[in-house]
Design goal:
The complex is a heterodimer of chains A (111) and B (115).
Chain A: E1 4-5, E2 10-14, E3 19-25, E4 32-38, E5 45-51, E6 56-59, E7 62-67, E8 72-77, E9 86-93, E10 99-101, E11 105-110
Parallel strand pairs in A: 2-11
Antiparallel strand pairs in A: 1-3, 3-8, 4-5, 4-9, 6-7, 7-8, 9-10, 9-11
Chain B: E1 4-7, E2 10-13, E3 19-25, E4 32-38, E5 44-51, E6 57-58, E7 67-73, E8 76-81, E9 90-97, E10 105-106, E11 110-114
Parallel strand pairs in B: 2-11
Antiparallel strand pairs in B: 1-3, 3-8, 4-5, 4-9, 5-6, 7-8, 9-10, 9-11
The chains are: A mainly beta (111), B mainly beta (115).
Chain lengths: 111, 115
């Protein structure tokens, strides 16, 4: 049972524009959400996170928005750069437990 | 960020043999380590949670006698795939965290191919 869902398997964005990656979850007990970036044959790299008590967290070009009522979060990348091309995983945690991952969204930023 | 080193990055073994994968936290003490498996075009699936000094907690459907996990110190956890079969071929990733409410940092992953 997939508790974290990323319904868009891929996304293509032009360089300089905004990339918006979406994530939905079903477990209302999740208290912490994270985004990871992953290249093929490598482990995920942590990008940004947000606690369930907040609705926005910003770090440079990356902003994560959380809508608890809709059980939805999104990652905004502005401006998008070709080096951002990778697979992005949304993950959620139920305090003290391991991460539940979505299936990932493959982002391609074209010059 | 913290550094987690996973070794080897790639291994090929024969059916029936055992393979050990190491996960080390290089600059912090990891009370908890997690082992994931990723199938092609699939998400990362949690296999087990490893706590230092105690037995690992396995997820439903994961054979604990086949995937042996040892977390003998605060900086090292190992995953041993015993009596490997071709269907065990996959990408295995470990992560480590200082505690249950802190970020988990991932190793580089291990590509296991069983022939």
């Amino acid at each position: 049972d997939q508790q974290v869902k990323q319904n868009s398997p891929s996304l293509s964005v032009q360089e300089g524009r905004i990339s918006i990656l979406n994530c939905d979850y079903t477990n209302s007990m999740f208290d912490y959400f994270l985004w990871y970036k992953k290249y093929p044959a490598e482990g995920p790299t942590f990008l940004i996170s947000i606690s369930s008590i907040k609705d926005k967290n910003e770090d440079g070009r990356f902003t994560v928005f959380l809508n608890k009522s809709a059980k939805h979060l999104s990652l905004h990348i502005v401006p998008s750069q070709p080096g951002d091309s990778a697979v992005y995983f949304c993950a959620a945690r139920n305090s003290g437990y391991a991460l539940n991952f979505g299936k990932g969204t493959s982002l391609l930023v074209t010059p | 960020g913290a550094v987690v080193s996973q070794h080897p990055s790639r291994v090929i073994c024969k059916s029936g043999t055992s393979v050990k994968i190491e996960c080390r936290s290089l600059d912090f003490q990891a009370t908890t380590m997690f082992w994931y498996r990723q199938f092609p075009k699939k998400s990362l699936m949690l296999m087990a949670t490893s706590n230092e000094g105690s037995k690992a907690t396995y997820e439903q459907g994961v054979e604990k006698d086949k995937f042996l996990i040892n977390h003998a110190s605060l900086t090292l956890s190992t995953l041993t795939v015993t009596s490997a079969h071709p269907e065990d071929s996959s990408f295995y990733i470990c992560s480590a965290s200082r505690g249950p409410t802190t970020e988990a940092f991932f190793g580089q992953g291990t590509r296991l191919t069983v022939v």
